[in-house]
Each structure stands twice: as C-alpha cells, then as structure tokens.
Write a structure and sequence with these properties.
Layout (H helix, E strand, L loop, with lengths): L5 H44 L3 H17 L3 H6 L1 H4 L13
Length: 96
C-alpha cells in the first residue's frame, strides 16, 4: 500500500478539523436552545405558581420589557396574554 504524502495527510486532518468544528457548533447551538427553553419554563412556572416578591413583580417587568424585545408580529401574538394590562383587582398573573 502506498504511503500517503504529507499533503494528503494534512488535507485529511483539515477535513477532520472542519467536521469537528461543525459538530461543536451544532452542539453549542443545541445547548443554547436548551438553556433558553429551560429559562423560559422557569419564568412561566414562576408566573403561574410563584408567590414571592420577584414572581409578583415579573408580570409588570415583562409588560415593560417584552414589547421592545419582540420584533415579529407572530412573536408578539404569542405573548398577548402577558402583554395585556391586568384586570382591575387582578394579581397581574395570566389566566391558567
């Protein structure tokens, strides 16, 4: 069997490196998505079940911050229930 040249070996290593970098990028994106989902789940849980001071302040904070953060109409529609002004005498929590 013919021995590979240094150039061939370097080309193979470059291809392996590119494959590993792509795999790492994919894993980093997956981790980022998972962190966002879990953080969102925590926020929604606190909105629905939290009884502490932070949980009570969360709806007002979201009503202030979300409109400037959300840019797509479809995204804004997803949060209509959170962005609506609280009903008079309500506790600011979305209906369950």
């Amino acid at each position: 069997m013919a021995r590979k040249t240094i150039e061939q070996r370097l080309a193979e290593l470059d291809a392996q490196r590119a494959t590993l970098k792509a795999r790492l990028g994919k894993q980093e994106r997956a981790n980022d998505t998972r962190r966002k989902v879990l953080l969102g789940a925590l926020v929604l849980h606190r909105l629905e079940h939290g009884r502490d001071e932070i949980s009570r302040a969360l709806p007002d904070w979201l009503r202030r911050e979300l409109p400037g953060f959300l840019t797509r109409d479809g995204d804004k529609e997803l949060f209509d229930d959170l962005l609506a002004a609280p009903a008079a005498g309500g506790d600011g929590r979305p209906a369950s």
